[in-house]
Specification:
alpha+beta, Translation Initiation Factor Eif1, four-stranded antiparallel sheet, 4 strands
Length: 109
C-alpha cells in the first residue's frame, strides 16, 4: 500500500483546485479456485528462524492481508503479508496447505 502523492503541483492558491493523485492499479483478486499458491519453508535471511512462506497470490494488498490474518488466527502464530507473499512464523507447511485447501485454494502445494 503506497501513500497517495499529488502529481505535478505542490501548492495552489486557487480554492477550487483539485489535486490529481498517482494511482497504482491494483490487481483484481482471482477467486480461490483459480489461485496457484506455493507453500515453502525458508530459513535464509531470517536470523536462524524458520518461516513458512506462501507465494503466488494474485490480487489486492487488502485481500492478501485478509488471507494472512485468517491463516495466522487459525494457526495461532505470528507473521506478515508483504510484497505479494505471506510469511508465517514456524515450520507449518502441512497445516498451512490444509488450511488453504479448506478455504477453497485447490492448487495450494
Amino acid at each position: 500500500m503506497s501513500k497517495k502523492r499529488p502529481q505535478g503541483v505542490v501548492y495552489s492558491t486557487n480554492p477550487d483546485y483539485e489535486y490529481q493523485y498517482d494511482e497504482e492499479p491494483q490487481a483484481e483478486t482471482l477467486e480461490p479456485a483459480r489461485q496457484k499458491l506455493r507453500v515453502h519453508i525458508e530459513r535464509h535471511h531470517r536470523g536462524g528462524k524458520t518461516a513458512t512462506v506462501v507465494k503466488g497470490f494474485v490480487g489486492s494488498d487488502d485481500d492478501l492481508s485478509d488471507l494472512a490474518r485468517q491463516l495466522k488466527g487459525r494457526l495461532g502464530v505470528g507473521g506478515a503479508a508483504k510484497e505479494g507473499e505471506i510469511i508465517i512464523q514456524g515450520e507449518l507447511k502441512e497445516k498451512v496447505t490444509s488450511l488453504l485447501n479448506a478455504l477453497g485454494y485447490t492448487d495450494a502445494r
